[in-house]
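Key result, reporting period 2: structure in, sequence out.
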């Protein structure tokens, strides 16, 4: 019995000694955290989307406080002035706001299907199963990987099997861009609406066989564009948003109705 009591006493003594040692060490070795990190983190959206390139909002807050990232590094928040105030600097103008554009208009009604897909509701899985059910090897598979990864619920799937981006909700975080196995989603300046909604690089005669609205590389848009903002490469029209003035000529001239967008004047009136 005495042995048990002695053992308990020794363990209790060792516990007090080691506990006291840890307490002293924690105070001596404590790394002081900059309180501005918590303040900056509180001003960030908290979605931890990774669109800034850092591991979550906490990681970005630490980078901003350390000077490794500018106060405008978050592509989601619009409250740069408050972050700048915490940091004691002036808020420089943020980069141009970008939103996601799905570059495919060939839904169930417009694009041909090779077979009926009854597998997992996942675009990557469908892509791995013989390249997907859609006859167009470049078109949207319509299973919503982009919508599933969007932390802001900015993407929904239409009845026609195509993603619809809510431009008001979209923050340009880029998660949907990474999620698309066919690389159909690109980040596009929010103030530029004219876009080529196709990524098919096959010749026109082949495109017509699989989709009613695919780009056939006819070059009409390229020839009609007054600012040379459109070029046709590998049978596909491409628009340079920096040169595009949104005159709308390409939209009206496109025989396949592949180019969509509103004239700048019409958008400003709205």
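The corresponding designed sequence is given below.
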């Amino acid at each position: 019995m005495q042995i048990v009591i002695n053992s308990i006493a020794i363990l209790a003594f060792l516990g007090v000694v080691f506990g006291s040692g840890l307490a002293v060490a924690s105070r001596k070795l404590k790394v002081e955290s900059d309180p501005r990190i918590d303040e900056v983190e509180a001003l960030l959206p908290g979605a931890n989307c990774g669109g800034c390139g850092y591991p979550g909002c906490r990681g970005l807050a630490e980078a901003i406080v350390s000077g490794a990232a500018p106060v405008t590094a978050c592509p989601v928040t619009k409250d740069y002035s408050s972050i700048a105030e915490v940091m004691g600097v002036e808020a420089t103008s943020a980069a141009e706001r970008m939103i996601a554009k799905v570059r495919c208009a060939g839904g169930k009604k417009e694009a041909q299907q090779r077979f009926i897909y009854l597998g997992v509701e996942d675009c990557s899985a469908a892509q791995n199963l013989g390249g997907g059910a859609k006859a167009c090897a470049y078109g949207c598979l319509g299973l919503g990987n982009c919508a599933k990864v969007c932390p802001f619920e900015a993407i929904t799937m239409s009845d026609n099997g195509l993603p619809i981006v809510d431009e008001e909700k979209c923050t340009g975080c880029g998660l949907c861009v990474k999620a698309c196995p066919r690389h159909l989603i690109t980040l596009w300046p929010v103030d530029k609406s004219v876009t080529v909604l196709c990524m098919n690089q096959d010749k026109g005669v082949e495109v017509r066989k699989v989709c009613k609205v695919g780009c056939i590389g006819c070059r009409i848009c390229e020839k009609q564009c007054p600012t040379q903002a459109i070029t046709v490469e590998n049978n596909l029209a491409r628009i340079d948003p920096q040169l595009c003035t949104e005159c709308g000529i390409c939209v009206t001239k496109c025989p396949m109705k592949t180019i969509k967008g509103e004239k700048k004047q019409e958008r400003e009136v709205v």
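DSSP finds eleven helices and eight strands in the chain. The chain has a mean pLDDT of 87. This case is discussed further under Risks and Mitigation.
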